[in-house]
Amino acid sequence: MTENLRPSGAHSTDQDPTPYGYGTAYDSSYGSAYDGAAGGGYPPPPPYAPTNKHRAKRPVALLAAVAIAAGVIGGGTAALVGQLNGGSGATGSGGAVNGTTVSQSSKGTVAGVAEAVSPAIVEIGAASSAGKSTGSGVVITEDGEIVTNNHVISGAQQIQVTLSTGKTYTADVVGTDPDKDLALIKLRGASGLKTATLGDSSQVKVGDQVVAIGSPEGLTGTVTSGIVSALDRDVTVAKDDSDSSGQDRGNGNGNDRWPFEFGGQQFNGDTGEETTTYKALQTDASLNPGNSGGALINMDGEIIGINSAMYAPSSSAAGSGSAAGSVGLGFAIPVNTLKADLDALRAGNNS
Questions:
Q1: Average pLDDT score, the chain
Q2: Minimal CA–CA distance to 307: which of 113, 121, 93, 116?
Q3: Of 250, 205, 194, 247, whose CA–CA distance to 228 is shortest?
Q4: Cys-Cys crosslink for 125: which of 109, 160, 269, 324, Cβ 3.0 to 4.6 Å?
């Protein structure tokens, strides 16, 4: 609505003053000073009180302005709260965890992802009667809950975890799920740790850029990048520790690659009799022995998979039997599989 604003005391054009023309006789109630006004002198005041039309509108306009201001302040407060919370949900059922995501200015860059997520990726050393294995893990709570592969800690008598800062902790197994090759361990006496954010693997598309972080060959915090090469690959891995599995063992005997089966063929050795098959994300990001249990991350800094298997062809050197390195065939357990299993792992289920 448009108002025709006038100086104070002016009258609206919709109030026609002509019925009270200056040459007209007026009611005596206006006083004798105006008798005979038609003959000259000052014009009489209007015979009606000034309209309240404009006065009524001002409080309405003021209330509207207050409402708009409140909306702006409220929206700004909500945006500020969202920024402070980092858009993450609280820890609870269904696998939601708090975590550090990539800052807005660094989204979409490998450097930004590495800076944000590396503090939440750890190196895991598991010692057993069969030797020592080196793997990786993802911190999901500030007090030290860490997700990794079951094959990294299977049969371990002692587990030592090294943070990105170099600080070490002893860890205990909370729960394992050999069928999904997942395990949850907990650090002793930890607090205030940097945590990762679990994303949504159902939104992953072939060709999406990803970053992998882990500890290949004990090189803590190694960052590689690539794309998602394929979805829903049926990968078969050994369920637990065995002489044939090697369990990422770095003991120099050539048996240091985690074996898996794909498309009816075996890679990196014999998987043994106890195996499990799951749907995996395939990536060409470089994965090597020791990356198992580490994170596959999207460009928003969210975990979309737990790295679990990689193809490592043998060296051409005769009889060496050692891993020749990554050739861009790696596999990760989708994070939605982890989130669906997290409550059971926390409950200490061992299947």
A1: 75
A2: 121
A3: 205
A4: 160
In DSSP terms, 197 is beta-bridged to 302
> What residues contact 106, with CB distance under 8 A and at least 6 apart?
112, 113, 115, 116
User: What pLDDT sits at residue 188?
Assistant: 97
Q: Which of 145, 229, 201 is nearest to 333 (CA)?
A: 201
Q: Hey, how many other C-beta atoms are within 10 angstroms of the C-beta on 12?
A: 13
Structure confidence by residue, pLDDT tens digits, 97-125: 566 666 666 678 999 999 999 999 999 99
Q: Please indicate, yes or no, whether the overall pTM of this predicted structure exceeds 0.85.
A: no
| DSSP-assigned letters across all residues of 82-121 | HHHHTTPPPS-TTS--------GGGTT-HHHHHHHHGGGE
CA distance 307 to 200: 15
pLDDT tens for each residue of 13-52 = 444 444 444 444 444 444 444 444 444 555 665 555 555 5
pLDDT tens string 234-265? 998 888 655 444 444 433 323 356 788 877 77
The rounded distance, in Å, linking the Cα atoms of 31 and 120 is 91
The conformation of residue 92, written as its DSSP 8-state character, comes to -
Alpha carbon distance, N-terminus to C-terminus of the chain? 71
pLDDT of residue 137: 98
Do 99 and 140 form a contact (C-beta atoms < 8 A)? yes
Segments of 120-241 assigned E as strands: 121-128, 131-139, 145-148, 158-162, 168-177, 182-187, 197-198, 209-214, 222-238
321, with CB counted inside 10 A (0-12, 13-18, 19+), is middle
Question: Is 94 within 8 Å of 339 (Cβ atoms)?
Answer: yes
Contact 258/213 with Cβ under 8 angstroms?
Answer: no
Residues noted as catalytic: 151, 181, 292
